[in-house]
Write a structure and sequence with these properties.
18 helices, 81% helix, single chain, 410 residues, mainly alpha, elongated
Length: 410
C-alpha cells in the first residue's frame, strides 16, 4: 500500500474524532458567548416564580417561570415580541377553552373542538408557531382539567412571566441594534473562515471528500446570513429610534453587513471551482486559500478594531495581487480561478470598510489608496442606560411642554 493512500486512510479514521472535538469546542464557545443571556433567563424565571408565589399567592406557579424562560431564550432582539406572542396564544386558548367547556361541558368531542378552534383562531390572526402551540396547549389544559379557575390562574401566571420578560428585555436589557448586527456578522464570518480553512486542508491533502465537505460548509453560510438579515429586520424599529436622535452608525453598519451576502456567495463559487480543478492547480492555491481563511477569521475576532480591518484589506489585496501575477496564460484554468479569488478579495476589502469602487480600483492597480474608516463601537451597558434615562426625561419634558401649550399656559 502506498504511503499517500495510507495517510489518507489515517486521516479518514481520525475525521469523526476531529469533528466531535470541533463541535464540542464550538458548543463551549457558544455557551460562553451566551452566558449573559442565560443568566438573564435564569434570574427572570426566579423573579417570575417569586412574584406569582408571594405577590399573587399562587401555591404552585409553574407556568410563570416557564413563560419567562420561553420569552427570554428567544433570539436576541425578538424576546419582547416572543413574550407578547406567547401571551396572545395563552389568552386565545384559555378563552376558547372556557367557551367550549361552558357550552358543551366535558365530553368526547369537547377536547377536539377546543383544539381545532384555538388553532384556527390563531391562524386567522396570522400568529407565529408559538401562538398556535400555546393556544392549543391552553385549550387542552382547560378542557382536560375541567376547572375554569385553573384557566384564570394560568392566565395570571402567563401575565406574570411575560411581564417579567418584558421588563428584562425592554427596560433593563433592551436590544442594541449595533450589537445584534455585530453578533450575526461574527457568526457568519466564522462560518466562512471555517469553510475556507477546510478547503485549504482538502487541497493540502488532495482529498476530494474533504473538499466537498468544505463546499457544504460554505453553502451552510447561507443560514448564517439568514440570521444576519433577520437581525436587520428585527431591529428596524430600534434603528428608526436611533435615527431619530441623529445616530446613523447603525444604518451604516447595516449597509456594510449586506456585503457579507456577496462575500459568502463568492467564497462558495470559488470553492466549487477549486474543487473541480486538477490536483496541480489546486496545490498552487493552497496558501492563498489558507491566507483568506486567516483574514476572514481575524475580521470575525476584530470587527470593532480599525487596525484589524485595515490589515484584512491590505492582506486580501496582497493575496489577490500575488495570485494574479502567478496565474499564467489568459485562457488557463488557473487564471479563471485567480479571477474568482480576486472577487473574494474584493468582497473582503469592501466588507472591511472600503468603498466598492475603491476596492475594485485597488484590485486592478494593486494599490489601496483609501484607508478603512474607524469602526463603530457598540455603547457600553451603563452608557445605554444613561442614554435611555436622558431620552426618557426629554420625552417627558416635551409632553409637559405640549400639554402646557394646549392649555394656554406660559
Amino acid at each position: 500500500m502506498s504511503a499517500p493512500r495510507t495517510r489518507t486512510k489515517v486521516f479518514a479514521a481520525r475525521a469523526p474524532a476531529r469533528r466531535a472535538a470541533s463541535r464540542f469546542v464550538a458548543g463551549c464557545r457558544r455557551a460562553a458567548l451566551d452566558v449573559w443571556l442565560l443568566l438573564q433567563a435564569t434570574v427572570g424565571a426566579g423573579a417570575a416564580w417569586l412574584v406569582a408565589r408571594y405577590a399573587l399567592d399562587h401555591p404552585a406557579p409553574y407556568f410563570a417561570p416557564i413563560t419567562a424562560v420561553i420569552a427570554l431564550t428567544a433570539n436576541l432582539g425578538e424576546r419582547g415580541l416572543h413574550a407578547m406572542r406567547l401571551l396572545l396564544g395563552v389568552f386565545l386558548g384559555l378563552l376558547i377553552g372556557q367557551i367550549v367547556l361552558a357550552t358543551l361541558g366535558i365530553g368526547p368531542g369537547t377536547m377536539t373542538l377546543a383544539v381545532f378552534v384555538s388553532l384556527a383562531a390563531a391562524r386567522m390572526l396570522r400568529g407565529a408557531q408559538i401562538v398556535l402551540v400555546q393556544a392549543a396547549v391552553s385549550a387542552i389544559l382547560v378542557v382536560a382539567l375541567g376547572d375554569q379557575a385553573n384557566g384564570v390562574q394560568r392566565l395570571l401566571d402567563a401575565l406574570t412571566g411575560a411581564g417579567i420578560a418584558l421588563v428584562f428585555s425592554q427596560v433593563l436589557f433592551p436590544p442594541e441594534p449595533l450589537t445584534l448586527l455585530r453578533r450575526a456578522e461574527r457568526a457568519a464570518l466564522k462560518a466562512i473562515a471555517g469553510g475556507l480553512s477546510t478547503l485549504a486542508t482538502a487541497v493540502a491533502r488532495d482529498d476530494d471528500t474533504l473538499a466537498r465537505q468544505a463546499v457544504g460548509e460554505l453553502r451552510q453560510v447561507l443560514d448564517r446570513l439568514q440570521d444576519l438579515r433577520r437581525a436587520g429586520r428585527t431591529n428596524t424599529r430600534v434603528t428608526r429610534r436611533a435615527l431619530a436622535r441623529g445616530d446613523k452608525i447603525v444604518v451604516r453598519e447595516k449597509e456594510n453587513a449586506e456585503h457579507l451576502d456577496l462575500l459568502g456567495a463568492s467564497c462558495l463559487l470559488f470553492a466549487r471551482l477549486l474543487t473541480s480543478a486538477d490536483a496541480d492547480t489546486r496545490g498552487r492555491l493552497e496558501q492563498p486559500v489558507r491566507g483568506l481563511a486567516d483574514v476572514v477569521g481575524s475580521l470575525a475576532d476584530g470587527l470593532d478594531d480599525r487596525t484589524v480591518r485595515q490589515r484584512a484589506a491590505d492582506r486580501s489585496l496582497e493575496l489577490a495581487t500575488r495570485i494574479t501575477a502567478e496565474s499564467g496564460p489568459a485562457d488557463s484554468e488557473r487564471t479563471f480561478l485567480a479571477y474568482s479569488l480576486r472577487t473574494v478579495a474584493t468582497d473582503v476589502i469592501t466588507f472591511a470598510g472600503v468603498d466598492l469602487a475603491d476596492a475594485l480600483e485597488a484590485i486592478r492597480t494593486g494599490a489601496l489608496d483609501r484607508r478603512v474608516p474607524p469602526a463603530a463601537v457598540p455603547p457600553g451597558r451603563l452608557r445605554r442606560w444613561g442614554g435611555r434615562v436622558v431620552n426618557w426625561s426629554k420625552r417627558v419634558r416635551d409632553r409637559i411642554g405640549r400639554a402646557s401649550t394646549r392649555s394656554g399656559g406660559p
